[in-house]
Design a protein that fits this description.
single chain, about 475 residues, alpha+beta, 14 strands
């Protein structure tokens, strides 16, 4: 998809300065004249603050575009780390959840928290009314949406397909006004058709929700293109986990060491991003995306021992890292697409779905976005919400079903029986069956289930 950039005022485009004080590195925002530290005041390293470069991405109007996402970093399987982080379902090593708030366009960090679970709520104090926050459907929760909108920041996020939002007011661009929890939102259902240079054409879809309810100022197609900027955050996570760490696990065997190691990693990343923005601003019209992060990292690593070319001379201009970045600028970003790459054998995406995407990267020649409006007749909304993600584990539907199966492990439950037990459908008892469903005696409980019809077999009970 195309990149989305918006010009901002001169005051918003001031470059931050890198300040080193003792054993701490800060990125200072000149407009506030103070470092934006992480919420963890006990950390020995802190790195945060927007870069606010002219090539950064703003909102549809004049605001600033931010993205939030969670990432996992593997840590050694020591007893203290396991006691702190617990077990994980998808990885062999314990994983440290890292939640970051990143500025799109420059990919600079604004804030970060980490620990056993994602704690995005601790980053809410960094949001401002002139920000537009992007996040993926993994954060599809009413409580987080309410908390973010309470800060005054605008939201553009992806919505799960199983969400049933009421249609309150239809807009001319195909979107419609709705409500999620207590927040008034606008829902956009977009169909995307991608055409590649080798003739491959495949469809895609976005279901977005935003607090920008004015369809004239913020058209649905423009917001759909803007949401793609969230992938800037994925590039930032890749730089942290693979460019710097090379995909390896962290080294510390205790939580205190992991705390120091993670903040040092974030400080290094933010310092390199500040140098990249400085180099891009030295040549007007240069997008920071064209500066290679790997070149900046390798040049900085080579300067650790000789420590040459790191002091700004009287003539000014970029230093050694900046000069090498400008000498090896990447070409302008091209629109390309490929299937999801699986790097972990234990990933839940180990089996590639046949969705029409090419196996290798292909250049996108045409991108058509069509906003699909809601149908004339909408299904009735459920009277009670089944979203139990915020409930205690013992009250969640999944745990209740597992407890039901464990109470009688030899019983052959039907799906309709379980649905009737939890009140989803009305069960019509058949002859010889109890109101709770058919029963099985001791002789049939241990018998294997056969898929062949038996003579005189009673048909399944009907549901209504």
């Amino acid at each position: 998809m195309q990149s989305f950039t918006v010009a901002r005022s001169e005051a918003e485009c001031q470059r931050p300065a890198l300040s080193v004080a003792g054993d701490r590195i800060f990125v200072v925002n000149p407009s506030r004249d103070q470092p934006i530290a992480s919420p963890d005041q006990s950390a020995c390293w802190r790195a945060a603050g927007p870069s606010d470069a002219a090539g950064g991405c703003g909102s549809v109007a004049t605001g600033q575009c931010r993205s939030t996402a969670a990432a996992r970093c593997g840590v050694p399987a020591s007893p203290r780390n396991r006691a702190w982080l617990g077990r994980t379902a998808h990885h062999g090593y314990p994983t440290l959840e890292l939640m970051t708030l990143v500025e799109t366009g420059t990919r600079s960090l604004i804030g970060a928290v980490f620990g056993p679970t994602d704690e995005g709520g601790r980053l809410l104090h960094l949001l401002r009314p002139d920000m537009l926050v992007l996040w993926d459907k993994g954060f599809d929760g009413n409580a987080l949406l309410t908390a973010v909108t309470a800060t005054g920041a605008q939201v553009l996020r992806r919505l799960r397909n199983n969400r049933r939002t009421p249609v309150l007011t239809r807009r001319a661009d195909g979107s419609y006004l709705s409500v999620i929890g207590t927040v008034k939102v606008r829902v956009i259902d977009a169909e995307i058709t991608v055409s590649c240079d080798d003739g491959i054409v495949f469809p895609g879809s976005y279901r977005l929700v935003t607090t920008l309810t004015d369809a004239r100022r913020h058209p649905a197609t423009a917001l759909t293109g803007l949401y793609h900027e969230r992938w800037e955050h994925e590039s930032a996570s890749y730089a942290l986990r693979y460019t710097i760490l090379h995909g390896h696990v962290m080294r510390s065997d205790d939580p205190a060491g992991l705390d120091q190691e993670m903040w040092a990693l974030l400080s290094l990343y933010q310092a390199l991003r500040a140098v990249i923005v400085e180099a891009a601003e030295s040549v007007p019209g240069t997008d920071p995306d064209r500066c290679c992060f790997t070149v900046a990292l390798q040049t900085a690593r080579d300067q650790v021992v000789p420590a040459s070319g790191i002091v700004l001379d009287e003539a000014g201009g970029p230093r050694l890292i900046g000069r090498r970045l400008l000498a090896g600028l990447l070409p302008c970003r091209r629109r390309r697409v490929s299937s999801r790459k699986v790097k972990s054998q234990m990933s839940r995406y180990s089996e590639r779905r046949d969705d029409g995407r090419p196996d290798r990267s292909r250049t996108v020649t045409q991108l058509a976005v069509t906003v699909v409006g809601p149908g004339p007749e909408q299904p009735p909304l459920p009277a009670v919400s089944r979203d139990d993600r915020d409930a205690v584990p013992s009250q969640r539907r999944r745990h209740r079903i597992l407890a039901l199966l464990q109470d009688d492990p030899t019983r052959l439950w039907r799906v309709a029986e379980i649905a009737a037990r939890f009140g989803d459908i009305r069960w019509t008892p058949c002859i010889g069956n109890s109101p709770d469903g058919p029963t099985a005696d001791s002789s049939t409980r241990s018998a294997p289930v056969s898929t062949q019809p038996r003579p005189g077999h009673q048909p399944p009970c009907k549901q209504r």
